[in-house]
Amino acid sequence: MSLRENIAMVESGRIVGAFGRDRAVRVFRGVPYAAAPVGALRWRPPRPPARWDGLRPAKDFAPCCVQPPRPRGSISDFGVERDDEDCLYLNIWTAADEPEEKRPVMLWIHGGGFSYGSGALPLFDGEGLARRGIVLVTINYRLGPLGYLAHPELTGESAHGSSGNYGFLDQVEALRWVRDNIAAFGGDPGRVTIFGQSVGSSSVSCLLASPLAKGLFHRAICQSGGSVGPLGNPGGGSMQTLAVAEKRGVEFIAALGARSIDEMRHKSAREIQLPPPEAMSDPWKMTPANQRLRNSGWVIVDGHAIPASPFDIFDAGRQNDVPLLTGANSREGSTAPAPSTLPDFESFARSVYGDDMEELFDLYRVREAPQVSEAARLINGHRTFNWQNWTTLRMHARTAKSPAFGYYFNRPPPFPPGAVYVDNKTENLGAFHTAEIPYAFDHLAARDWPWTQTDRDLASVMSSCWVNFARAGDPNGAGAPKWPRFGGASTDVMLLGDFVGAGPMPDQDRLAFWDRFFGKQRHSA
């Protein structure tokens, strides 16, 4: 079946898509990769979608998972999306004319703290990558309590004695769907790259650690996130044991007035997913009771999907051995809430860092900072994101046979004059969390900002590197600067900003602090 007519045949039936901005790219939106996870299928592993007769339209995005509204005017605000518990859909961009073309495939996993997001945001428009020869896939997956609620009753229902990783299992199911169907869109099922940002990147690192995903992908890109923090550590890409996650699940359903999972399956998705406003307050002021109502969750070390801590899996070289490209941005924490006074930050830091607080404050020059909140945000960014990617890079380079490549993104995007996002003036944001996405997707038009030729050139270089990596497991090639393999003779990373070229990772003295801090936590657990 020719793609020229915008018709593709998948296992469940025939679909008809739409054209992109011209007829060079075909877009198939809202394609079901699993059955609706509703009713009796709530909090169960995904099932295959039902077959259909005739020609199913695939021209519009499907609803995303039910989720709280994004903060209005924030850097992540792209307007209101439709949401629904029936959310397991994916979207495909391809410039292939025939199914036999076997183009490299890239599957994008969105971020959003496992509470927000979808594969339909304008930031993730795949037309730029499709024009470069990629078959681009974006997915929705279950979020919040619908995606990550663990509970002893749910564990008892499971054939594997586990619960809580439903959103993660959705990602695995989407990869299975790609393996079985992507050839219909001109994609190569033997050349699939998974990539994601923030908790999308954390999900990628979990897929690297999961035996369920073995063979379903062949390269991996982690952008600003990982899952190699100590188990149970608050923040910083931490994961939970199944026992801890079950305890939180018991507290959560009790906070909603339910006595059993059966009662929870009769509650509306919105009641489960949308906590009251007081539970969405500033995390610096979060009370334990409100935390129980949030229960946004995280991927869980359940002994099945994730058999052990990803740190231990990488450390032992048991991860899925594929080429890895990973990195983070220079100002990852600049959009996050932070304490505004030194006494507030000292009180918080002493409770979290104990005897390590003085060294931390010296390294980050906290008491010299003109604004304590800026120092706090830099610390939060390094702890939560930069250290995760730096550690994943070093461990993969040490224990895997496949190559690893690192980057450091430090280009502040050109904000519109006078714009303000939440409580941060734009001139203080720098290369903020998510700033690299329009460059990697070669889609600066996702944001109506006064982009310069420097931005356009950087987008061309970055997207070329991402595409080269998807093609051959190496970012080097056409349109790319020389990017050294990390480890062995070279521990340089690619610096992506006004200067583009290889160089030492910045802030290694500060990142070494987090090695020591998390190492002590890991050994005391």
Report what the structure shows.
The protein has an eleven-stranded mixed sheet, with helices on both faces. It has a three-stranded mixed sheet with strand order 1-2-5, with no helix packed on it. Strands 11-12 form a two-stranded parallel sheet. α6 (242-255) crosses α9 and α13 (372-399) packs across α16 (508-524). The chain has one domain (3-242, 298-334, 384-508): 3-Layer(aba) Sandwich (Rossmann fold), CATH 3.40.50. With 525 residues, the chain is of the alpha/beta class. It has helices at 127-131, 144-148, 152-157, 166-181, 199-209, 242-255, 261-265, 269-273, 288-294, 310-315, 342-353, 357-363, 372-399, 437-440, 453-472, 508-524, and strands at residues 7-10, 13-16, 18-19, 26-32, 55-57, 89-94, 103-109, 135-139, 187-197, 219-223, 240-241, 300-301, 324-329, 404-409, 420-421, 424-425, 493-496, 500-503. The longest helix is centred in the C-terminal third of the chain and has 28 residues, at 372-399.
The CATH architecture name reads 3-Layer(aba) Sandwich
Q: Give unreliable regions as ranges.
A: 286-293
Count of DSSP H/I helices: 16
Order of strands in the sheet with most strands: 3-4-6-8-7-9-10-13-14-17-18
CA-based gyration radius: 22 Å
- Largest sheet descriptor: 11 strands, mixed
What would CATH call the class? Alpha Beta
**Approximately how much helix is present in the residues?**
25-40%
How far apart, in Å, are the first and last alpha carbons? 57 Å
The structural class is: alpha/beta
Counting structural domains, the number is 1
The average pLDDT is 92
How many DSSP E strands?
18
Gross morphology: globular
